[in-house]
Structure formats: C-alpha cells, structure tokens
Amino acid sequence: MSRQRLTIGTFGEIGYLDGPSGRIVARARYRDWDGKTRLVQATGDTRKSAERALKAKLADRSLFQPSSSALTPDSPFPDMVAYWLEDLELEDRLSKRTLQLYERNMQTLVMPAFGNLTLREIGVARCDHFLKQLAKQSYNRAKQARVVLRLALGLAVRHEVLPRNPMDHVSRLHRPASTPNALTPAEVNAIRTAIAYWEAGRSIFGPKPDRQLGAIVEVMLGTSARIGEVLAIRRRDIDVTSPTPSIRITGTIVSHRGEPTTRQDHPKTAKSRRTVAIPSFTAEAVRRRMTRLEDSSLDALLFCSREGTPLTTNNVRRQLRHVLDLAGITGVTPHMFRRTVATAINEQGGVGLAAELLGHTDPKITIQHYIRRNEMVNPATAEMLDRVFSKKE
Fold this sequence. Notes:
CATH architecture of the largest domain: Orthogonal Bundle
Number of domains: 3
Number of helices: 14
Largest sheet: 4 strands, antiparallel
Shape: elongated
Helix content: 40-55%
Distance between the termini: 122 Å
Structural class: alpha+beta
CATH superfamily of the largest domain: Intergrase catalytic core
Radius of gyration: 32 Å
Strand order of the largest sheet: 1-2-3-4
Number of strands: 9
Order of helices and strands: EEEEHHHHHHHHEEEEEHHHHHH
CATH class of the largest domain: Mainly Alpha
CATH topology of the largest domain: hpI Integrase, Chain A
C-alpha cells in the first residue's frame, strides 16, 4: 500500500491501496458533525478517479446536519412545517390551544402561498411581498402569518438548514389606525333589558334560556374578566359574605379540537391571576346564581351545564348574539364588556388602575387596545377663553 499526505478541510490524510480486480481504494479519516472521526473510503480505476469519488462522498456528508433531521435546503416547505410542529410538541412549552392556533394559521394563511416551494426558494423578497399582500386584506391575518413563518424558518436556521431567517429583514407591518370601541351606560342598560326579556321567556324564537347569560354579563362588567375566565369561576373563588365582596380569577375555560371543554387551572397570563373587589350589582347577581347551583362543593362552577360541566365560550357568544339581534343591537361581543370596564375605570381613576384591574403587565396595552378615547376637550378651556376674549360692555 502506498500513501499520499493530503489535508483537505475536515479530511485527514488520504491513503491509497490496491483493491479487488485491480481497482484503487482511496480512504481518509473524516470528522463528522457529532465530533467523531470515521474512516470513509471509495474506489476508482486510478488514484485520481478514486480520490474524486472519495471527495464526492465526503461532500455528501453534512458537517452540521443532525442525523435525526432529513431537512435540506431543497426540502419542500410542508416537510419543514411538519418538522417544526413536531419540534414544538417536543419542547412542551406552549399550551395545546396555542399549538392548534399555530397549526391553523400555518395551514390557512401561509401554506397556500408557500406550499409548493422548497426552503432555498424562500427569501426576503418573497416573504415581504407575501405579508404586504396579506396585510391589504387584514392586518391581523398578516400579523398571525408573520409569527408562524418567523418561528418555522427560525427552526431551519437553528438546525443550519438555512443560513439566515428571511423574516428578520422583511418590512414592518403597520397597524391601521383604530379606536377601541366601548359601550355607554345607556347601551349597557339596553343590553340588560334585552337579556332580562329573553330570560323571562317572552321570546318565542331561539334556544330556551337557562337564566345564566344575565349573570355572566354582570360578572364581566364587575370584574373586567375575559369570558373564559368568568366561566371558570368556582364556589371557592367567590366571597360575597365579607364587607368587600370579591372574586378571585384563577383559571379559564379551554376547548381543544376533538376534546371535551375543560377548566384550565391558570388564566391567560401570570398577572391575570388576581382577586377583584366586585360592585354591588355583580355581588347580587352572583348570590342569585349560587342559590340555583345544585352542586354544593367548593369546586362547583358558578356557570355550568345542567350536568355541571363547563360552558363553552362559543355557546355564550351565540346566546348573546341571538338575544341582542332580537333587540336590534349589533356588534357587541363579550370582549367589548372588558373594553367598556377599562374605559369607565380610566375615566374615573386613571389608566394605571384600569391596567391593574384588567391584569395587564403594561398600561400601554390598556391604552392602545381597551380604552375608548374621550373626544371631549376639558370644558375649562371655555372659561379661560371667556376671561380673555369676552366682549366688554
């Protein structure tokens, strides 16, 4: 056997020996992506052809690619999406609801535009154009698509399938100017009247009332809680006997695809877990509702089905929509009550108190998304102008 010393990148020395049938075997030590050095060999009719075959064989070995991943820059985008979703499940960091939301947004928003592409065909220009076209239809849809596309392509970068994430360089999405909408006290009372009329059985249309919707609305108005948080309130979370009645927000209702609706033992965020002093109208509604509960256990839900199981948020939304349609009131959702409460507390006590009540970590969120702008300028300006410019007799 003869040897020739040659160092090429991560190759060791290339050696040659005579193989069977007079062919030449070229071989070298190669340091793989896992740090281990392995012997790789190839054959050819001559030293040059054996060396070329060896180099080609080594070039096919990925220095960076983990053996558990079959992704390459030429992999179809849907293969990478499937790998990304599996990776999220392995991390076990996100809730099942969030995972389902990511999967839905990827399939409905992103896949129609990227489903026929390979990873190497997805660049900054393509991503930028896609998001701008989607933003023309809906800012929120473009925002949701941007989130999942950035996360999925980020996985490809971390696994060194792509050299960079094209989503890091796309243009910023610009939110259309909008003002949070909230109900006036007169509109709140009109809604109360419509619900009371329906719960009294005076409407012959729609589902038979179970006399819970009115109390649900009063709890939303008195706590600023999200609809899922209201439906997750248990007996143990309620104190209506103290001088200052209160409700503790400790969970929310979740409905995972293909699974029964359940109570989740924590609300949306850490700061969402809070104890809220409730006004008299809410305390009264809660007391009435508690007298109708058949289950006396501390874990009994305040609002539930006849079997004691959790109500779905969609069911409550449908009931509310039906009742208000009968009253000629449109555009009211459970979340609008949360904005209504934020607006009222801001006007009476300031944005800091409103943010605390809503469980927000940043008052900017309260201002931007929950408080209706007061267009009335301080009337003191009129008095000031009178003093300066009033006509002299």
